[in-house]
Write a structure and sequence with these properties.
Blueprint (H helix, E strand, L loop, with lengths): L2 E6 L8 H16 L4 E6 L10 H8 L7 H19 L2 E7 L7 H10 L6 E4 L2 E4 L5 E7 L9 H12 L4 E7 L6 H19 L1 H5 L1
Parallel strand pairs: 1-2, 1-3, 3-6, 6-7
Antiparallel strand pairs: 4-5
Helix pairs in contact: 1-6, 2-3
The structure holds flavin mononucleotide.
C-alpha cells in the first residue's frame, strides 16, 4: 500500500490555489492507487513553531541528557520526520509570498533538517537520508518567473539536501495579473496535473 503525504502551506489553508492544485493531483493519484493512504498536513491550520536557540539545543543534546521540555521538542520533530519517512510520495502546495516560501514552510523545514536523522556529514560532504521518494510541487504565484526564481532553487536545494532528488514542479503563474492570465495559468497547471496523473505516467 502506497502512502502519500500532502503538505499545504497556503495562508488560506484548503482555499489556497496551491492547495486546490495539490488536491486535484491527489484525487488523480488516488484513482490509480486504490486502498492507498493519504495524510494531509496543513501548516496554516497547524503551524510549526519558529526554530529558537532552545529548540535547536534540544536537537543537539544527547538523548539521555535531554530535559522533559527538550524531549517534547525532539518528539515533535521526530513525528514530522516519521510522517515523511513513511510517505512514498510527497505533494507540496507552494505559494510564493514576498519572493520566497511561506514562513510556515521555512519553520517546518527547520524542524525536519536534523543531522544524523535526515542528513549526515561525510568526508565527501553532506548526504541526505530520505531517499526513494517522489516529490510533486504545486507552485502558485501572482507574477511570472518560469522557474528562474530563488524560491524554486531554494526548495529544490533543500529537498535534495535531505536526499529527495526526484522533484517535479508544476507552476500556476500570473495569478495576480488579471482574470484571463489567472485562468490561463491555472489551466496550464491543470493540463500538467492530468499528464502527471495519467496511469502510464504514474506507472513509470
Ligand atoms: C502576502 C503575499 C505575498 C505575495 N508575494 C508574492 C510575490 O512575491 N510574488 C508573486 O509573484 N506573487 C506574490 N503573491 C501572490 C501569490 O503568490 C498568489 O496569490 C498565489 O496564488 C498564492 O498561493 P495560495 O493561493 O496557494 O496562497 C503574494 C500573495 C500574498 C498573499
Amino acid at each position: 500500500m502506497s502512502t502519500l503525504l500532502q503538505l499545504n502551506t497556503s495562508l488560506f489553508s484548503t482555499g489556497g490555489q496551491s492547495s486546490k492544485l495539490a488536491d486535484e493531483f491527489v484525487a488523480g493519484w488516488r484513482a490509480s492507487h486504490p486502498g492507498s493512504k493519504v495524510i494531509v498536513r496543513d501548516l496554516a491550520h497547524d503551524p510549526v513553531p519558529h526554530l529558537s536557540a532552545e529548540r535547536f539545543q534540544a536537537f543537539l543534546a544527547k538523548p539521555e541528557e535531554r530535559t522533559p521540555d527538550q524531549r517534547a521538542v525532539v518528539d515533535y520533530s521526530d513525528t514530522l520526520i516519521d510522517e515523511l519517512r513513511r510517505a512514498d510520495v510527497i505533494v507540496l502546495g507552494l505559494p510564493m509570498y514576498n519572493f520566497g516560501v511561506p514562513s510556515t514552510l521555512k519553520a517546518y523545514f527547520d524542524h525536519i533538517a536534523r543531522v544524523g536523522v535526515t542528513f549526515r556529514y561525510t568526508e565527501k560532504g553532506p548526504v541526505g537520508l530520505l531517499n526513494g521518494k517522489k516529490v510533486y510541487v504545486f507552485a502558485t504565484r501572482g507574477g511570472v518567473y518560469q522557474g528562474a526564481d530563488s524560491e524554486t532553487a531554494f526548495v529544490r536545494q533543500f529537498l535534495n539536501f535531505l536526499g529527495l532528488a526526484d522533484v517535479e514542479f508544476v507552476y500556476a503563474e500570473g495569478l495576480a495579473i488579471g482574470d484571463a492570465a489567472k485562468q490561463a495559468g491555472l489551466a496550464r497547471a491543470q493540463v500538467a496535473i492530468r499528464r502527471l496523473t495519467a496511469p502510464e505516467a504514474l506507472a513509470a
